[in-house]
Design brief:
By secondary structure, this protein is α+β, with helices and mostly antiparallel strands. The chain has helices at residues 2-17, 55-61, 117-123, 199-203, 210-221, 223-228, 280-293; strands at residues 30-33, 36-37, 45-47, 50-54, 65-69, 74-79, 82-87, 92-95, 98-101, 107-109, 112-116, 126-131, 136-141, 151-155, 162-166, 170-173, 180-185, 190-198, 230-233, 242-253, 256-266, 270-279.
């Protein structure tokens, strides 16, 4: 309602402040916003090659707020973080306080304030495309450039593989093992461990398959964790490795709930074990993104 009243006030004030300039409408100009045709009670027109359009119609279609200052005779369009100030009859507009030259001065026609469409559209972040054959102007929102997500990459000492973890709140705990990466969160009790083992070297220990490798880890290296908690098998797919098993373990001890996620996988030449462990709150907060991080192992 406030936007509607402000728009009416804009038109009335402009009408009383500026003499009406007679112009002729250009037949057949169509304006689309995101594929939807905009309806006008006063038709757009061309003046010296510039399409002039009723400001109220385009501003409302974009979800913008329109204000009018009777004292300065300046129309203001607010959209998102942008503030565009257009003086009626003037050639210098302002965007966020900085002067910008107008393609064509704003003017009043039949009680409507007309502004140069391309100028307003582009200044408010739209793509403006003119189709000469169909006399159609297409307005579309510019796609936002995705913000770069901060990550931290670690490489094993033997340089056999690396993993990229989400965020920057990690510190590496250096293992004596050449084949292991251990990273701890600086936010609290949350750790990521990745180890790889050469298949040929493990054959001398009697491990011939990935299933035997997973069983060996469950019964020896991580026996205590498996024995202490409730184990639930998990389904997970990695694009870069063949997964042979995954488990989530919940451990309750001294009023503290901890969780662990283990995954056992293989490539053509190596076996991998990955572990994500931590107190429940941090674990639940990051487990989804950390599972995705396993896709970055290479």
């Amino acid at each position: 309602m406030k936007k509607f009243l402000a728009t009416i006030a804009l038109c009335i004030s402009c009408t009383s402040a500026i003499s009406i300039v007679p112009v002729y409408a250009e037949d057949g100009i169509t304006v689309n916003y995101e594929g939807n045709t905009i309806s006008f009670d006063t038709a757009p027109f061309l003046e010296n090659g510039t399409t002039m359009i009723p400001m109220r119609a385009i501003a409302e279609k974009m979800g913008a707020e329109v204000l009018w200052s009777p004292s300065s005779k300046v129309a203001t369009i607010k959209r998102g973080q942008d503030i565009l100030e257009i003086p009626a009859g003037g050639t210098i507009a302002k965007k966020n306080g900085e002067d910008i030259l107008l393609d064509m001065p704003a003017k009043v026609v039949n009680g409507r304030v007309f502004v140069p469409l391309r100028f307003v559209g582009e200044q408010l972040g739209l793509n403006v495309v003119w189709d000469k054959e169909t006399k159609t102007i297409a307005l579309t929102e510019k796609a936002e450039i995705p913000k770069k997500v901060a990550t931290t990459q670690y490489t094993s000492k033997n340089e056999n593989y690396s993993i990229t973890l989400p965020g920057e709140n990690w510190k590496e705990e250096y293992s004596d093992l050449e084949n292991t990466i251990i990273a701890d969160s600086t936010e609290g009790e949350l750790s990521v461990l990745v180890s790889n083992f050469d298949k040929q070297e493990l054959k001398s220990s009697g491990i011939q398959t990935a299933q035997e490798f997973a069983k060996f880890n469950k019964e020896s290296a991580y026996y205590a964790v498996y024995a202490m908690g409730k184990v639930t098998e998990q389904n997970i797919i990695l694009n870069n490795m063949n997964v042979v098993g995954a488990d989530e373990i919940i451990v309750e001890e001294n009023d503290t709930v901890s969780k662990a996620f283990f995954i056992y996988a293989e490539t053509e030449s190596h076996y991998f074990v990955c572990a994500i462990t931590g107190e429940q709150e941090l674990y639940d907060k990051y487990i989804s993104s950390l599972k995705n991080a396993l896709q970055t192992i290479k």
